[in-house]
Amino acid sequence: MENSVKKWHKKYGDIMTLWIGNKSVITIHDSPTIYATFLKDGEAYTGRFLTDASAIARNGRNGVILVDGDLWREHRRFAIHVLRDF
What's the domain range around 11? Predict the structure, then answer.
């Protein structure tokens, strides 16, 4: 898939929409646009994109990697506290 995305980037430019199943994924391929987009409207890009396969693999658990929101903040605070004293 990586090679396909590179080809599409050359053909369609720095911003494009990919469809993964029934989910649209917008990709941005240049640093200034990424920075400006997240700085200007970062709240719109919060949350994790979860596929059906990842939901099945998680089996209702969040873990550390696929968590976001308040639970992410709680995990982050805990990890910083523990690692600071390590």
Answer: 2-45
Cα–Cα distance for residue pair 63/20, rounded to 1 Å: 24
User: Which amino acid makes up residue 21?
Assistant: G
Query: How many domains are contained in the chain?
Result: 1
Chain-centroid distance of CA 3 in Å reads: 20
CA atoms of 64 and 12, how far apart (whole Å): 35
78: pLDDT strictly greater than 80: yes
Six-digit token string for 36? 């400006």
pLDDT tens digits for range 1-14: 778 888 988 999 98
Contact 47, 68 (CB under 8 A): yes
Query: Average pLDDT, stretch 67-73?
Result: 80
Q: What is the pLDDT of residue 55?
A: 72
